[in-house]
């Protein structure tokens, strides 16, 4: 399971990062938490976790020439 962090920003945003599934993080903005319902926020977090489960961060790094 990834770590979860909340960062202070008015924007509604969330992202997943990490080089491996077992070393990953989902970050969620305070703007997202303040402006979305709990069900909406849960759906966004689930979406970000799916990126980790699919290995999308590694794929994007390779596509962008980082590997």
UniProtKB/TrEMBL annotation:
Membrane topology, as annotated: Multi-pass membrane protein
Keyword set includes Zinc: yes
Subcellular localization(s) per the UniProt record: Cell membrane
GO cellular component, one term: plasma membrane
Keywords: Cell membrane, Hydrolase, Membrane, Metal-binding, Metalloprotease, Protease, Stress response, Transmembrane, Transmembrane helix, Zinc
Signal peptide as annotated in the record: none
Stretches assigned to the Peptidase M48 domain: 4-65
Principal location class: membrane
Coiled coil region boundaries: none
InterPro entries the record matches: HtpX_protease (IPR050083), Peptidase_M48 (IPR001915)
Cofactor: Zn(2+)
E.C. number(s) listed in UniProt: 3.4.24.-
Any one biological process term the GO annotation gives: proteolysis
Molecular-function annotations in GO: metal ion binding; metalloendopeptidase activity
Cofactor note: Binds 1 zinc ion per subunit.
Family per record: Belongs to the peptidase M48 family.
The protein's name in its UniProt record: Heat shock protein
Species: Salmonella enterica I
């Amino acid at each position: 399971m990834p770590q979860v962090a909340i960062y202070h920003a008015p924007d509604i945003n969330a992202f997943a990062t990490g080089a491996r599934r077992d070393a990953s993080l989902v970050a969620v903005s305070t703007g997202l938490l303040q402006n979305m319902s709990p069900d909406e926020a849960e759906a966004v977090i689930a979406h970000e976790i799916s990126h980790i489960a699919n290995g999308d961060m590694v794929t994007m790094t390779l596509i962008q020439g980082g590997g």
